Amino acid sequence: MTTDAYLADCRARLAFDLMSNTWNPVLIWVLRHGPRRPGELRELIGGISPKVLTETLRRLEFNGLVTRTAYAGSPPRVEYGLTDLGRTLLPPIEAFGAWAFSHGDEVMEAQERAADRTAPRPGNRRAGGGGGL
Predict the structure, then answer these.
(1) Distance CA 55, CA 93 (A)
(2) Residues with Cβ within 8 Å of residue 84, at least 6 apart in sequence
(3) What kind and span of H or E run contains 66?
(4) Cβ atoms of residues 21 and 56 within 8 Å
(5) Phi, psi of 118 (to 5 degrees)
(6) 3-state secondary structure of 21
(7) Quick one: average pLDDT of 123-132?
(8) Helices 11-20 and 23-30 sit at what angle, rounded to 10 degrees?
(9) Is-above-0.85 flag for pTM?
């Protein structure tokens, strides 16, 4: 096994890939207090479609981070919960959240400065304006 950080099979890259999907860490964090039904998850999270929720839960289950438990009955129901492996991601997710709380304003200010630098200014033709040198 190599330790080259840029290879596709690098363990660090695997972890970053898992956390780079917007909904993966959100769902893991929401499940920290115990199993939930899909409807509960949608209510707690907000802004996630049923399709994206299902895709994300399947992805997390495929990676061994979430379990799916189906219950017989009328109507049948399903709950999702964290595995022991999934629980190991709670401290890093919490650390990212703490970082965002501490530095989020700085990041947003940097984004605003960058947007201001790239915004077209009145009277400044940026493309296709015809005037030459």
Answers:
(1) 20
(2) none
(3) strand 66-71
(4) yes
(5) -100, -10
(6) coil
(7) 54
(8) 80
(9) no
